[in-house]
């Protein structure tokens, strides 16, 4: 099961927004949200909450892809997020996520008995390629007790 399939199977909001996981590797995750009138804002573009969910889902996909082999001993949790809306988004939007720290460094902290934190940065783009939003999600791997 890919990271995207795993999220679609376990996170109902992913299915609600019809998110499509185009790529989910340890290097990057790309997730697309189709244009859906039910999730528009007052000016006809994707609602800010829907774009937040899109970007957070892309961050989750890369976390699962990068640290899926650690799930038997730690639970990935988002501990904070900041988003900036840069340009008007209309139509279909795509979020691309990348890890902000090397995965090996994060796993080394986990191996040392720590609870590592690491950022994932996400760009949201509209169909013409313009960046409409930027998000940083800080994740942790909480060791199982």
Q: How do the helices and strands line up, and which of them pair or pack?
A:
Layout: H1 3-10, H2 12-16, E1 20-24, E2 29-33, H3 48-67, E3 74-85, E4 93-99, H4 103-111, E5 117-126, E6 131-143
Description of the structure:
Helices cover 29% and strands 36% of the residues. The chain has 145 residues and is α+β, with helices and mostly antiparallel strands. The protein is elongated. The mean pLDDT is 96.
Largest sheet: 6 strands, antiparallel
Determine the N-to-C terminus distance.
Answer: 26 Å
User: Strand order of the main beta sheet, please?
Assistant: 1-2-4-5-6-3
Strand content: 35-45%
User: Helicity level, as a percent range?
Assistant: 25-40%
Stretches with pLDDT under 50, minimum 5 residues: none
Estimated radius of gyration: 15 Å
Order of helices and strands: HHEEHEEHEE
**Basic shape:** elongated
Mean pLDDT: 96
Structural class: alpha+beta
Query: What's the helix count?
Result: 4
Total strands: the figure is 6
Short description:
This protein is of the alpha+beta class. The chain has four helices and six strands; from the N terminus they run ααββαββαββ. Helix content is 29%, strand content 36%.
Question: What features would you highlight for this structure?
Answer:
145 residues; alpha+beta; 6-stranded antiparallel β-sheet; 36% strand; elongated
């Amino acid at each position: 099961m890919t990271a995207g399939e795993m999220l679609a199977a376990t996170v109902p909001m992913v299915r609600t927004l019809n998110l499509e996981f185009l790529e989910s590797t340890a290097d990057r995750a790309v997730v697309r949200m189709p244009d859906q009138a039910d999730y528009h804002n007052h000016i006809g573009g994707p609602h800010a909450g829907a774009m937040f969910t899109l970007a957070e889902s892309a961050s989750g996909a890369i976390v699962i892809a990068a640290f899926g082999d650690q799930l038997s001993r730690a639970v990935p949790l988002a501990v904070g997020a900041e988003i900036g809306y840069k340009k008007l988004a209309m139509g279909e939007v795509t979020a691309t996520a990348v890890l902000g720290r090397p995965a090996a460094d994060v796993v080394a902290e986990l191996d040392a008995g720590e609870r590592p934190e690491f950022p994932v940065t996400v760009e949201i783009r509209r169909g013409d390629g313009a960046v409409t939003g930027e998000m940083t999600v800080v994740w942790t791997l909480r060791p199982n007790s």
